[in-house]
Give the backbone structure.
Amino acid sequence: MSALRLIVVLVVAAAALVAPAAVAAKKTVCTVTVNSPDEKDTFRRYLPADQYEFVELVEKGRPDWLASACRQGVRCDALIISGHHDNEQGFFSDRVEAGEYLNEGEMERVACSDSCPDLFSHLKEVYLFGCDTLNPAPAHVA
């Protein structure tokens, strides 16, 4: 094989390796921050910005923020939920003045209905950060 032909083959092979990375879309990390942004900030610090886009779903002061995300066509690859949790309220903040929360029934409705087919249907990872997130017993405050 001639040197020129070898160089052409190597350039084409290198281009084939680089091309998929260049056209690969960023993964969308959706966050639901109803309490502390600590978890979201930690993920953002360690995930490469050229590979991951962060989208906060909660719009402060707007009760229909999940519906708003649906209308905007947000499509989540990963979901991070940060908030205290109990089986009655869902995810909520420890700050009394904060009005944002996430009710599991609303999340289930959005995820399982045709009203918002893309928001959660492509999830590959879900991270739940909250006190008693997986505890089946209701929280009791003495």
